[in-house]
Amino acid sequence: MRDNLVEILVGEVESSLQRYNQSYNGMTWREKVLLLVNVVGSIKKLGVNSNPLAARVGARERLRLYLVEHVNIKLTATELQVVSGISEYGRRIRELRVEDGYKILTGASNDPESGIILSPSEYLLISKEPDLEAARRWRIANRIRRETQGGSKAKLLAYLLENVGQIITSEELAYVAKSSEFGRRVRELRTEEGYAIATKFTGRPDLSMGEYVLENAERLSQPHERKITFAVQKQVYERANSSCQMCGWSRVKWKKNDPRILEIHHVLEHVCGGANTSENLIVLCNRCHDEIHAGRLELPEQLL
Ligand SMILES: [Zn+2]
Ligand SMILES: [Zn+2]
């Protein structure tokens, strides 16, 4: 049946091209174009039927099968267009990437650190197995983006709360927030609302630029510890070498399930006139921080 279909399509292409060749000089421009449209239509069907099993499924699934069968091989855009039989194959590939979690690289978003060089019209699937965690995250991001009421700050908070302890990229945050202003909103969540959102500069030197982690959903900083500007926070963490100034704990010493995080503490309490300046601020792990506030620990003299 399928072989028969292929024969018919090839026959159509051959006879159309023959007619084109024979009467090229006698045809109007439009007649020529319409004949070529026939050829293109038959060729497109041939592409879809190039694999009998894949011909039975939709364009997106056909692309997926082709990519998986040719993992780690550079594929051209034209090739994928032929396989899919649609001109919007690019959108389907994007769906495979973000919705299903397939790691498909393109030259359009080349990652120089991967060491793989692709031209803008090349695609490369780097693993047969989709990243299900990335796909799950994308579904959450998409739902929050559509359904969470309020501005971009509310959407960002909802997304961070769904991913406590996980590394989130600025790309994800920009998508959720529907705004390039997401960085400012994230800072507000940290400095004004007290959420323990860490970055490379605020307690998590192990992170890369553009990565964020909400370290703990319950642990909001005290009102007196909010309103410290990002610049001052960064300076205080830097000076402390991103470690607790009481016990020396830092992320470098972190082991799985260690609940500790780093926080900023006012040496002279804000209510007693202590300022939000770096001279009055130190970095503590939350364990030491709680002990200090409970009066069970005292700051050593060199920190006063
Ligand atoms: Zn404190
Ligand atoms: Zn400590």
Describe the structure.
This protein is mostly helical. It has 3 domains: 2-125, no CATH class; 132-220, Arc Repressor Mutant, subunit A (Orthogonal Bundle); 224-304, His-Me finger endonuclease fold (3-Layer(aba) Sandwich), CATH 3.40.1800. Helices cover 44% and strands 9% of the residues. It has a 3-stranded antiparallel β-sheet with strand order 1-3-2. Helix 1 packs antiparallel against helix 2 (29-48), helix 6 (132-147) packs antiparallel against helix 7 and helix 6 (132-147) runs parallel beside helix 8. The chain is elongated, with a radius of gyration of 29 Å. The N and C termini lie far apart (86 Å). One zinc ion binds next to strand 7 and helix 11. Residues 244, 246-247, 249, 284-285, 287-288 line the site of one zinc ion (ZN).
Topology summary:
Layout: H1 2-23, H2 29-48, H3 59-69, E1 75-76, H4 77-84, H5 89-98, E2 104-106, E3 122-125, H6 132-147, H7 152-162, E4 168-169, H8 170-177, H9 182-191, E5 197-198, E6 211-214, H10 230-239, E7 262-266, E8 281-285, H11 286-293
Antiparallel strand pairs: 1-3, 2-3, 4-6, 5-6, 7-8
Helix pairs in contact: 1-2, 3-5, 6-7, 6-8, 7-9
Bound molecules: zinc ion (2 copies).
One zinc ion binds at residues 222, 225, 265-266, 289, 293.
Quick synopsis:
By secondary structure, the chain is mainly alpha-helical. Helix content is 44%, strand content 9%.
Q: Uncertain regions: pLDDT < 50 for 5+ in a row?
A: none
Number of domains: 3
Number of strands: 8
Distance N terminus to C terminus? 86 Å
Bound molecules: zinc ion
Cα-based radius of gyration, to the nearest Å: 29 Å
Side-by-side strand order of the widest sheet: 1-3-2
Shape: elongated
Main sheet attributes: strand count, strand direction, barrel closure: 3 strands, antiparallel
Q: What is the percent of helical residues?
A: 40-55%
Separate helix tally: 11
- What order do the helices and strands follow? HHHEHHEEHHEHHEEHEEH
The proportion of strand residues reads: 5-15%
How confident is the prediction overall: mean pLDDT?
A: 90
What is the SS-derived class? mainly alpha
